[in-house]
């Protein structure tokens, strides 16, 4: 899409759509909604492939495994569910959080699932068996977002305690805490090379850090509107942000690491 035109509108949910994820081959889109369902769409035709029912409350987050076979969903019903993409069959329910699940992420190798929750914890699960591997504690408010580094060795979490934490996946230990936002961190994103981390915050900013040494690199600020999401382009040169003023902004971050030296 080179000109920004709207290609297609996918309609069918009866509640807010709060999370979307592409399959690795780009042929399927998953959408999670406050109507308690996940829908799978054929992107070439826009056709609804299937609706996944099973959660008893709003779906907050969806993620598709790197091999495209499995979908994970988190919900206000305090559970994570794993689904087979091809059939829509529910494979298993992961229970353990004591409050709403706000975010789910699958590691680049597909072996580990991470979940963040309003219970202030992050849980790591074996994606194949559903076995709970460990619980990461340290945040003092809701965990709003979790994401893996491109090499899968680090997990980042953003929280309503105004911090981002980096965790070592091998040991589960806290590596460092990144501070700077003055309000809730809604979303975090690694650059494709893993060298930079971006955090979108309710304080109208996106903060960028060097992941090697936790050095703040830059703060991108907007005039008004909380920033709820951030994502890097595949080449790492552009950062997109979505905010409460209903605007999507594109930022040139190609020289951020060099400028921070």
Describe the overall structure.
- With 261 residues, the protein is mostly beta strands.
- The chain has a single domain (58-259), classed as 7 Propeller (Methylamine Dehydrogenase, Chain H), CATH 2.130.10.10.
- 2% of the residues lie in helices and 50% in strands.
- It contains one helix and 23 strands.
- The strands form six sheets. Strands 1-2-3-4 form a four-stranded antiparallel sheet, with no helix packed on it. A four-stranded antiparallel sheet has the order 5-6-7-8, with no helix packed on it. A four-stranded antiparallel sheet has the order 9-10-11-12, with no helix packed on it.
- Strand 9 and strand 10 form a beta hairpin.
- The longest helix is centred in the last third of the chain and has 4 residues, at 256-259.
- The two termini are 34 Å apart.
- The model has no long low-confidence stretch (mean pLDDT 94).
Give me some keywords for this one.
four-stranded antiparallel beta sheet; mainly beta; 1 helix; 261 residues
